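Subject line: Sequence and fold of a protein, written as structure tokens
Body of memo: The sequence and its backbone structure tokens, given next.
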Amino acid sequence: MGDDGRSKRPDREDYERALKSMGTFVDISVDDLMSLTRTAERIAQQHTKEVKRIADVMTSPVQVVHPETPLSAAARLMMTHRISGLPVVDGTGRAVGIVSETDFLRALGVPGPHASHGFWHAVKSAFTRMMARPKDQDAEASVADYMTPDVVCAGPGSDLHDVLDLMRRHRVGRVLVCDPEGRCVGVVTRADLLPVFFAPAD
């Protein structure tokens, strides 16, 4: 069937005919319907331009630690790179856990960061306290003693909406990106997703 010239955006007359065909049960004006359509078109256009795969927004390579890594070294790594969580991997790079600021501070008996202080102030205080401990008081505890073994992972090809769903369901702020063998190849955090889903429209 050839192009009859109707493959264009609907005009006002088209909207009026559409509303009329739906009877009197639709409580919406032509102007409302046109405005709604424009909004939907803008969202759809933005959606088509969205980065769709986790691999496009993840941080890679990612800072990692091993189960036997001293907790002091993990703390130093977190402060140096200003990150709030570290994947824990075995000798093959397979993800076996994660140590976050929550695990770290709770393990050291330091309350979570207050709004007036901030996370890095709390980490610095915890690190200072840990370094002041005598050697016989677990100053060289390892990451394995405090890490969370339940790892939330997604594949590099995962859709970002699925990753958001993972974060909601598991109530986590980061998802590890793992290959089919379970090796950690990246990490994506809530901060990585904000520019994607809340970028200003063109």
